[in-house]
Amino acid sequence: MADDSISRRRMLQLAAAAAVVVGANPRGLGQLSWGAQVDAPSSNGLRTHVTRPYDAETDVAVFREWLTPNEKFFVRSHFGPPAPDAIDPARWRLSVSGLVDTPLDLTLSDLNRLEQVTITAVLQCSGNGRANQRPRVPGVQWERGAVGNARWTGVRLRDVLEQAGLDRSKAKHVQLEGADRPVSTKTPLFFRSIPMVKALHPATLVVYRMNDEPLPVLHGGPLRLVTPGWMADSWTKWLAAIRVQGHEAEGYYMQTAYRHPTAPVESGASVSGGDMVPVEEMIVKSLIVTPGEGAEVSAGPVTIAGVAWTGEARVTRVEVSMDDGRHWKPATLLGNDVPYAWRRWEYRWDAAASGPVTLLCRATDSRGDVQPERSSWNPGGFLWNGWDRVSVTVAA
Asked: For 248-272, b where at least 16 C-beta lie within 10 A, e where not — what string?
C-alpha cells in the first residue's frame, strides 16, 4: 500500500484544502463559504445552476481529456459541505454499525492500514440531461455536463465491512450517511442505501483521492463512497456513517426522491410509489465533444469526436449521423477498454454541402442496449440518454 495514501502529509494537505474553501479562490472557483458558494467563472470550465448550495456542470469541451480535472469536475450538492470542524482530517471518524459483530469507529489512519485500490470510473448525476425532458420536471436543469471521468483511490467497502464482521444471515443493505446537514431541521437528512451485493463488489470503494490528489472538499473530502457503474446518488459525499441492516434505507431520499418508474409512462403522467424503484445503474450514453454547438466548420475532412459510457456493461459501438438519423456511420473507439471508465471515439466526416447540419451520436453496449432517439419521460427527470445533438454550419 502506498505510504502517502492517508499519511500525516495528506492530513495536512486536506486541512489546507479545507482552509482554502473557507477562504477564496480555490483554483478559480470563486468565493466559497460552507453551504453558501457563489458563482464560478466560466473560464473554470463550470457553468453554475444553483449557488446555494453550489451546483455546477462541466463545459463539454473539457471532455477532450480522458480524465476530467478536479477543478473542472461538475459539482452536485444538497446542502453544501459540512462545517470545517466536521471534516478536520485529524478528527474525522467513520462509524460502522448495525448488523455487525464489532461496531467500528475508524480514523483515516485506520483506513490507511487496509489495501489501497485505484480505479477509473464515470460519475454522473442522475438528472444529467433533465433539461431535455418534455414536459419539464422540477429539479436542477442539467444539460450535458453533469458527468465526468476520474481516477479514484481508496479502500474497498468490502474490506471495511469484513473488519466489522457481517451478520450474513440478516445483512441485506448498507445505509450510507454523509456529514453534511440541511440548514432547516425540517429538511430530511440525505442518506441512502445500496444492496449488499453492490456493497461487497470489489470495485465499490471508500475513497480519499481523486485524480491522484487529496479528495477535494467540494467532491466529498475527506471521504466519499464510489459505486462504479451506478448513478451519483449512491456516491455519498463526506461519508461519516455506515449502517448494515436487513432492509432498504427509509426516508425521503430513498423512498420518495431518486426513484423512477419500473416501466415507461405517458409524458406528464402521475406515477404511484409502488410503480417506482430506486435509481441505481447508469444506462448507455454518448456525447459529441467536438465540434462544439454552433461551430462553423470548413468543407472537407472534419473530425467528430466524443465520449461514451454505460453502467455495468461495456461500450461496444458508437455511431454518428449527419442526416437526422436516417443513416448511421460507425465511429472508431479509441484507447483501452477500461471497466467503468468512459470510452473516447472519433469519426472522420467529409463535410460537403454548405449550410446547417445537425450531428447525432448514439452508443451501444455489450448487453445490446442502444441509445434511443429520446428517453422515456419520468417525473424525476432521471436517466436521460437520448441521442446527443450538435448543430454546426459548414462554410461554403
From this structure: bbebebbeebbbbbeeebeeeeebe
Continuous segment of H or E residues that includes residue 196? helix 196-199
Answer yes or no: are the C-beta atoms of 21 and 77 closer than 8 Å. Answer: no
Q: How far apart are CA 265 and CA 127, in angstroms?
A: 18
* Whole-angstrom distance, CA of residue 394 vs CA of residue 392: 7
Q: Which amino acid is at 146?
A: A
The C-alpha angle with vertex 230 and arms to 362 and 32, in degrees rounded to 5, equals: 100
Q: How many CA atoms lie within 13 A of 253 on its CB side?
A: 18
| Burial class of 165 by CB neighbour count within 10 A (0 to 12, 13 to 18, 19+) | middle
Helix (H) or strand (E) holding 253: helix 252-255
Q: DSSP 3-state assignment of 237? A: coil
- What does R_g of the chain's alpha carbons equal in angstroms? 21
Distance CA 190, CA 239 (A): 11
Type and span of the H or E element at 159: helix 157-164
CA distances, 31 to each of 23, 40, 87, 326 (Å) = 7, 8, 19, 48
- Tell me the sheet residues that pair with 363: 318
pTM, two decimals, is: 0.89
Burial class (CB in 10 A: 0-12, 13-18, 19+), 386: middle
Distances (CA, A) of 183 to 78, 180, 301: 11, 10, 54
Could you report the average pLDDT of every consecutive run of 10 residues in the chain (396 residues)? 37 36 28 34 76 95 97 96 89 97 97 97 98 96 98 98 96 97 93 98 98 97 98 98 98 96 93 94 98 96 98 98 98 97 98 94 98 96 98 94
If you count them, how many residues does the chain have?
Answer: 396
